[in-house]
Amino acid sequence: MEKWLIVAMFTQVLLTFIIMFIMGNRRFRAAKQKTIEMKDFLTMELEKAGSDVRVADRNFINQFEMPVLFFIACLTALQLNAVGYMFVALAWVYVLLRVVHSYIHLTSNTLKVRYYSFVISSLVMLSMWVVILTRVF
pLDDT (tens digit, 0 to 9) for every residue of the chain, 137 residues total? Predict the structure, then answer.
């Protein structure tokens, strides 16, 4: 069971690296097209770069917000021997919703759908913590 949780954690890490690659690609494309200058990277003033660059930047930053709670939950569950089928299933649902959220954010950026994927993933995260608490107490 623990192995599948670690694979879910790795998948979230992999998502972060994929988004980092997309972000870098969009930044360098903007620099190549002279939308921004290389000196703009010194202060990260990329407002002139266009929305596709700013969206990728924002999505990358997102990977270090709520997913941090995911990693802490997983490590806590592993440490306290609180990993079970329910926890692993919730972890995978969380990661898949983060993939969906990022895909929407980086493509169509449909706000309503993106918002719901975020809210549902947040509720799944809360459920993961409830599972930890119920297994510990």
Answer: 899 999 999 999 999 999 999 999 998 888 888 777 666 665 676 777 788 989 999 999 999 999 999 999 999 999 999 999 999 999 999 999 999 999 999 999 999 999 999 999 999 999 999 999 999 99
95 contacts 63 by C-beta, under 8 angstroms: no
- pTM, entire model: 0.92
Tell me the Ramachandran region of residue 2: left when phi exceeds 0, alpha when psi lies from -120 to 50, beta otherwise.
Answer: alpha
**19, 21, 26, 30: CA torsion to nearest 10:** 140
